[in-house]
């Protein structure tokens, strides 16, 4: 008969006790860390059942502990956001994709605050989801700040558009009083209207206010942008040639800002500031790169680069290097400025590039 081994049993019990103690200490540490965070922290079972919230959640919402377990959390959202939040959460549970959404969460005083909700799944070695951990971050102040900026941007744009309209109307009125100047007035009004269209692209935008260029090509877009610099005879002073490209609204604002700035400076100080001055814009694709070369000729002689860089020039550089992922080089030649924008070929039509990758 085999005798029992009390020493072995005690060892197993001791290991089990140490494991339980370690788990308890680990959970205590997690709760201490979670409760010290400024964000609301929550956790769910693999099926999405909420079974943990940190202290910050209860401080913010003011609800009794445990009252939002399970599916009770959705009732804390603004009625207009509940179905949208549910749909996004169900999608993540089905696919295992990270959860991220903005919604309005009810505070303890009944005020709804904009909140950013995020969650990531935890998986075991077999790739199965064992838990979801998420956070809620109060972004209401940031949201209101963005809305205020958008309102200010729209108001500024509205006032500038009114200025264009008033100037155009004054020119039309003067032309009626002086019929001999009608042809000249019509040409000036055309330029003013072209500048107004260019302004719509270069003003600050949010995703919702950003103008769309539809299926317009790069050359068609630039021709419309440069209409303001057409001679009274109808001859353009900025000649665009070379390879055309598919063009979408994701690149429109950056390209418009760059060439609106270059054309404006050329009209003030460069080739377009004198009669007979010209600009050529050569657009070339080579492999995975697309190069746009702006060359001024016939303007005032240039002795060298300016002593300081203006705000507009800095914005143009930011548009190319920051937003389009390219490089911008300026060469101050004696007979005129030359600017080369070297871009990834995909920068001008990001949607089509994304579709091709997919």
What's the SSE blueprint?
Blueprint: H1 6-36, E1 40-44, E2 50-53, H2 55-61, H3 79-95, E3 99-106, E4 112-123, E5 129-138, H4 140-177, H5 182-202, H6 218-225, E6 238-242, H7 249-268, E7 278-286, E8 289-297, H8 311-323, E9 327-333, E10 336-344, H9 350-357
Parallel strand pairs: 6-7
Antiparallel strand pairs: 1-2, 1-5, 3-4, 4-5, 7-8, 8-10, 9-10
Descriptors:
Beta-Lactamase, Heat Shock Protein 90, five-stranded antiparallel sheet, five-stranded mixed sheet, 9 helices, 46% helix, elongated, disordered C terminus
Structural account:
The protein is of the alpha+beta class. The protein has three domains: 106 residues, 2-Layer Sandwich (Beta-Lactamase); 68 residues; 147 residues, 2-Layer Sandwich (Heat Shock Protein 90), CATH 3.30.565. 46% of the residues lie in helices and 22% in strands. The strands form two sheets. Strands 2-1-5-4-3 form a five-stranded antiparallel β-sheet, sandwiched between helices. It has a five-stranded mixed β-sheet with strand order 6-7-8-10-9. Helix 7 links the parallel strand 6 and strand 7. Helix 4 packs antiparallel against helix 5 and helix 7 packs antiparallel against helix 8. The longest helix has 38 residues. The radius of gyration is 31 Å and the shape is elongated. It starts with 5 loop residues before the first helix and ends with a helix. The C terminus is likely disordered.
